[in-house]
Design brief:
Elements (H helix, E strand, L loop, with lengths): L50 H15 L4 H10 L4 H14 L4 H16 L3 H10 L4 H8 L4 H16 L6 H14 L4 H12 L4 H8 L3 H11 L1
Helix pairs in contact: 1-3, 2-3, 4-6, 5-6, 7-9, 8-9, 9-11
Length: 225
């Protein structure tokens, strides 16, 4: 019509803006709605997880690394904030199905650490205690390592070290006895193992070993310990 001015820009005659072309006004995002009409969580949202499920996952991750005692798993759960009630429930169930077995753990630990590292019963008992194994359970596992086996292992350790040992017999004697003591061997077992090994090494070492009173030295070490 004459007399009516056509308005430009965003006036009456301007075409409506295309969606997303120039309109930069942010629009609220909503999660998709399911058939029930309720909003579904978006990809960035998560629903709360059951505490028991979280506890089981923590235990399984721990057990995937190596076998664990009940006490070790309980400690791991506590560090992650799992309640004592849920922790006990999950661990009781694992006990029932045999996933946790402190007696089997103790037997395997004693065998592995004695054969692999040459550790004696005293050192092994300390390690089992640190891992929360009950004293009676640990004792039963340690009973499988008898005194004769322990003495044989001590002698094997000394023989291996003597191949590269350097120094005077008395210095070598002290170092080897100290090595066995750190592995948990009683003074008597350690001193006798080193004395017997030195006696077969050389004439000088044999002479030194012949002068040693193993029983007196063991008693003296026992009193100092």
């Amino acid at each position: 019509m004459a007399g009516r001015r056509a308005r430009t820009g965003r006036g009456w005659d301007a075409a409506p803006p295309r969606a997303g072309a120039d309109d930069t006004t942010p629009r609220p995002r909503h999660g998709r709605r399911g058939r029930s009409g309720e909003a579904e969580p978006t990809s960035g949202e998560s629903t709360p997880r059951d505490e028991s499920e979280v506890a089981r996952e923590i235990c399984l991750r721990q057990l995937a690394v190596r076998p664990r005692t009940r006490a070790e798993l309980a400690g791991a759960l506590a560090k992650k904030g799992i309640s004592a009630e849920v922790s006990a429930e999950v661990l009781d169930r694992y006990d029932e199905v045999g996933i946790i077995d402190d007696a089997a753990f103790a037997r395997a630990w004693v065998s592995s650490r004695h054969n692999g590292r040459g550790l004696a019963r005293r050192a092994l008992a300390n390690e089992l205690r640190q891992r929360g194994v009950d004293g009676e359970v640990a004792s039963e596992a340690l009973d499988e390592l008898d005194e004769e086996t322990e003495a044989q292992t001590a002698r094997a350790l000394v023989d291996r070290k003597l191949r590269t040992a350097r120094g005077e017999p008395d210095a070598v004697f002290r170092r080897l006895v100290g090595m066995l003591a750190r592995k948990g061997y009683p003074p008597g077992v350690a001193i006798r193992a080193v004395k017997d090994a030195l006696a077969t090494q050389s004439a000088e070492a044999a002479e030194f070993a012949d002068q040693l009173d193993a029983d007196a030295l063991a008693d003296a070490e026992g009193e100092r310990g």
